[in-house]
Amino acid sequence: MGIPPSRPGRHPPDRSRGGARGATRWRRSRPNPGATARARPVLEQVPRADELDSILAEFTRGWDRGESPRVEDILDRLEPCAPDDLIELIYHEFCLAEAAGDDPDPIDYLVRFPVCRDRLARLFGLHGVLGGSFSRSWAEPAALPESGDEVGPYRLVRELGRGGFARVFLAEQDDLDGRLVVLKVSARPSPESRLLARARHPHIVEVLRHVTADDGALHLVCMPFLGGATLAAVLDERRRRARRPKRGRDLLADLDRASAPEYPPPPGRSRPAREVMASLSYPQALAWIVARLAEALDHAQRRGVLHGDLKPSNVLLTADGQPMLFDFNLAVDWHASLDGDEAGETGGTLAYMAPERLLAIAEPGLTPPPRAAARHRADLYALGLLLREALTGQAPEVPEDRGGGVRCLAAALAAARGRADWVRAATRGVPSGLRPILERCL
Questions:
Q1: How far is the CA of 324 from the CAs of 253, 289, 381, in angstroms?
Q2: Rounded to whole angstroms, what are the CA distances from 141 to 145, 156, 167?
Q3: Which of 211, 245, 258, 295 would bridge 282 by S-S if both were Cys, CB 3.0 to 4.6 A apart?
Q4: Is the N-terminal amide bond of 80 cis, ω within 30° of 0?
Q5: Are the beta carbons of 41 and 51 closer than 8 angstroms?
Q6: Would you call 173 helix, strand, or coil by DSSP?
Q7: With the C-alpha atoms ordered 329, 331, 336, 342, is the resulting torsion angle positive or negative?
Q8: Per residue in 260-285, is it b (16+ CB within 10 Å) or e — as a string?
Q9: Which helix (DSSP H) or strand (DSSP E) does residue 99 occupy?
């Protein structure tokens, strides 16, 4: 996900008290990890590559034998140890533990190795969106509220989703007669609200309010509750029913089955978007949706905002049938860059990344990050993958993670998508009228 890194040594303040920004109360889902663990000093000298490879191989064999060795057990053999090598060892242990079915918690690694906390947070943020997904929230969960808690004027009804450093809730806003809103609660600041205010568009979810709570420890982004479901949930409904939709009304039926039950549509109200989709074939309805999203991306890009993490779970189909972009947490403000063009590499979801972004992750010292114009094209590439998935029902293929880490996985995916026949294979089975558009995106 590319979420901003943790702050070393920062602990959640006491949530039991109120503050100038409103009372904030919740129960902690996990004890505060504290700062009792200490990592060994990390020095700059680099051990020989063959020595590190030998130790990694021995480390892997230990896990294969069921011994579950830990990084601390072998650090003495690598002292002095370079920071990059320590990160590689830690991540190697995490992947081996995950492969062994141990369900490792990234928080434990941040506590065990506080000296590497920032870099590990970025690495685990990327890992969680590869194919890897953590079974629980790991980004300082003690600092985030739960369903049923109150944060300022908001009562959290139920959780809608979560990411590395944020949770999204359906909430009741008590100071406005209990109206239902969507509330994103994060322990990390983000430019999302500011950029969305600049890029307002009918097909981009609007930010109603952005405030902090508990003396600035929490960042709250309030958005309208529009009902409906994410495109990912709609496609999951299609897969669950194991049928191939033919008409736009089939898409609407899947949307209604996946939609939030708290949003009953007003009786008798005309809903033009639904009427349009109901009159189209399934491929035509998807083309109409993607065209609206392309308009939103173009509008945002003209105002200097690049989304950076476009995928089905970041597209909302409202109860009225309107497609909406949301979750600009990784958005890039290229107007604020040094030369007005450098966008940098801020993470995202590897499965939906263009090859140039994958190479920037696989070879950070050799491949420069894509510039702003290329990052916009990368958003369109992701839009093409989204269209392909919706048309075929097949999510983007990601190579199997064999424990080589994020860089190896990004390199393998970039190589696969760089083959001359990849676009032709990717568009197989797509209706002929949409194939040129998909080929252009990819």
A1: 18, 9, 18
A2: 8, 16, 10
A3: 245
A4: yes
A5: no
A6: strand
A7: positive
A8: beeeeeeeeeebebbeebbebebbbb
A9: helix 83-99
- How many residues are there in the chain? 442
Characterize 134-154 residue by residue with b for buried, 16 or more Cβ atoms within 10 angstroms of its Cβ, and e for exposed.
Answer: beebbbbbbbbbeeebbbbbb
Structure confidence by residue, pLDDT tens digits, 208-257: 999 888 777 788 999 999 999 999 999 999 999 888 899 999 999 999 99
Task: Report the C-alpha gap between 222 and 220 in whole angstroms.
Answer: 6
Residue 139 CA: distances (Å) to CA of 21, 25, 147, 187, 188:
24, 19, 17, 9, 10
Residue closest to 271 by CA, chosen among 201, 315, 319: 319
pTM of the model: 0.69
Phi, psi of 88, rounded to the nearest 5 degrees: -65, -40
Cα–Cα–Cα angle for 246, 251, 255, rounded to 5 degrees: 160
Any bridge partners for residue 332, and if so which?
306
Encoded tokens for 223: 């958005």
Quickly count: other Cβ atoms within 10 Å of residue 256's Cβ: 16
Q: Which residues pair with 316 in a beta bridge?
A: 230, 324
